[in-house]
Each structure stands twice: as structure tokens, then as C-alpha cells.
């Protein structure tokens, strides 16, 4: 387990913003807790299937979420996300109201295996939305690219005026079976999504109002009030036929949390 303050992660999983720091603050990580309004490390939850935690609920279809002992050698606990076929299993943070409609997110994830069929199989690890718009913003997801025979991370959106798209990049290949620290920043000043993998900014994955993977037109955020974290695969009869993902050390903040 990385040297994160696991004890702090057991505090309230959803609360009001602690400090009114501008959401467009520097990308330099701030001290853990400075502006952090969601924390979840799963250490205070009982082992076994879970349908809700402090400040969050779940959304599943052909999927389950289970609190299990740490698989990385530490004394803590983590969340196992399991789905069958093209099912989904998400931890859902609702009633969010990030200042300036912008926020940073950080979590550790490990996906045992990514799809190898069908061609262009599309999957999501994070989805942000708002009740004022049908737009679904997917800051962390990806796709199986048959021409490369690999999966790549990509930022995407569905149901927006720019259509349904996933802007995957060959510069961001996935790694199965290994823990990875993932971060993303949703910045409403330019409807910009920025992604960091293991502490390194992946600038090729950045999308914004005018530069995105959809049809001609502006990409515009909804007013965010919900964030889903977990796994969803959209195509039927995938290979492999089931998926397992681990999550830990979740944090949402008005500033970059870091900790990778």
C-alpha cells in the first residue's frame, strides 16, 4: 500500500467543501485534506458485499461491489468491483456541488483484464453528470483498438451536442493486473478534462470546449452533481466474459490531491 494516510481516508466520505480554494488552482498537489470534500479508503467498512457507504450509494446491473482485505500487502481494505458480460458496478457519489463546477479526483485502481473482443469494445471507469443536462462526461475510460490489438485510455462523452465519442490515444496504453494511481481534473472554465497516470500528466488525453473527439461544435459540461466510479462495458458477449477491478484511496478536492 503506498504511503497514503489511510487513517484520514476513513473520515467522512462526502461533506461540504472544507476550504473555498479556487478549483483552477495550481496542478501542484496540495496537502492531503486541503480542499478535500470526499474521502473513502474502505477501512471502516465491514468485509463483504456493500450497497452503500457514508455519502455514497451503488449502481449495479450484472455486477457487485465487495469490501475485501488489501491485496497489496497492507493492513487496510479495498473495494472489489465485479461484473459479468457487459454489466456495470459503480460507487455513486451524489449531491455534489463543486465550487465553480470544477474539481480534482484521485484514486488507485487495478483492473485484472481488459476486453479483447468485440472490436472497439468500450469501457468506463468514471462518469460525471448533472441533472440539468443529458451529457455524460467520462474522464476515465477507454477502448479496445483491434488495429493495435491493445486497449488504450481515452476521455469521452455521451449524449452531448458533440455526439457520443471516446478520444483514446495510443500514447496511453492500459496495464492489466497492476495498481495504478489515476487522477483527473474537470475544469469548467474551458470545459477541460485533464488526466494524470501515476503522477504524470497525459497531455494527449486532454479535451476541452473546442478540442475533443466529437462532432463539430462546443463540448460543454453539465452542472455536476454526480460522479460514478467503477466499471462498465457496453458491448454484449465480450471476451473475457467477466471483469474484476479493485479501487482504493478515493479523494475529490478543489485542489489536486496527488499522493501517487
Give a brief rundown of this model.
The chain is an all-beta fold and 260 residues long. The protein has no helices and 15 strands. It has strands at residues 36-40, 48-49, 52-53, 56-69, 77-94, 103-111, 122-130, 133-145, 150-160, 163-173, 180-187, 192-197, 200-201, 226-233, 242-253.
Low-pLDDT runs of 5+ residues are 1-26
Largest sheet: 15 strands, antiparallel
Number of helical segments? Answer: 0
List how many beta strands DSSP finds: 15
Identify the overall geometry: globular
Structural class: mainly beta
Instruction: Write down the secondary-structure element order.
Output: EEEEEEEEEEEEEEE
Overall pLDDT metric: 89
β-sheet strand percentage? over 45%
Helix content: under 10%
CA radius of gyration: 17 Å
What is the CA-CA span between the terminal residues?
Answer: 11 Å
Describe what you observe in this structure.
The structure is a single chain. The chain has 260 residues and is mostly beta strands. Helix content is 0%, strand content 50%. It is built from no helices and 15 strands. 43% of the residues are buried.
Amino acid at each position: 500500500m503506498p504511503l497514503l494516510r489511510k487513517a484520514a481516508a476513513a473520515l467522512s466520505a462526502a461533506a461540504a467543501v472544507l476550504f473555498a480554494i479556487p478549483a483552477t488552482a495550481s496542478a501542484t498537489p496540495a496537502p492531503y485534506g486541503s480542499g478535500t470534500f470526499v474521502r473513502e479508503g474502505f477501512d471502516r467498512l465491514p468485509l463483504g458485499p456493500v450497497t452503500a457507504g457514508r455519502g455514497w450509494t451503488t449502481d449495479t446491473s450484472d455486477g457487485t461491489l465487495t469490501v475485501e482485505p488489501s491485496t497489496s500487502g497492507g493492513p487496510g481494505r479495498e473495494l472489489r468491483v465485479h461484473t459479468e458480460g457487459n454489466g456495470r458496478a459503480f460507487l455513486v457519489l451524489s449531491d455534489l456541488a463543486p465550487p465553480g463546477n470544477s474539481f480534482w479526483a484521485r484514486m488507485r485502481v487495478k483492473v485484472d483484464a481488459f476486453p479483447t473482443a468485440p472490436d472497439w469494445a468500450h469501457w468506463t471507469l468514471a462518469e460525471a453528470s448533472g441533472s440539468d443536462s443529458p451529457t455524460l462526461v467520462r474522464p476515465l475510460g477507454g477502448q479496445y483498438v483491434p488495429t493495435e490489438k491493445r486497449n488504450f485510455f481515452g476521455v469521452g462523452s455521451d449524449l452531448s451536442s458533440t455526439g457520443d465519442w471516446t478520444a483514446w490515444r495510443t500514447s496511453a496504453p492500459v496495464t492489466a493486473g497492476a495498481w495504478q494511481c489515476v487522477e483527473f481534473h474537470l475544469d469548467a472554465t474551458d470545459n477541460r478534462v485533464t488526466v494524470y497516470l501515476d503522477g504524470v500528466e497525459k497531455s494527449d488525453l486532454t479535451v476541452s470546449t473546442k478540442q475533443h473527439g466529437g462532432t463539430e461544435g462546443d463540448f460543454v459540461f453539465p452542472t455536476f452533481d454526480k460522479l460514478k466510479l467503477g466499471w462498465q462495458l457496453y458491448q454484449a458477449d465480450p471476451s473475457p466474459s467477466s471483469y474484476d477491478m479493485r479501487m482504493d484511496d478515493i479523494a475529490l478536492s478543489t485542489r489536486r490531491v496527488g499522493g501517487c
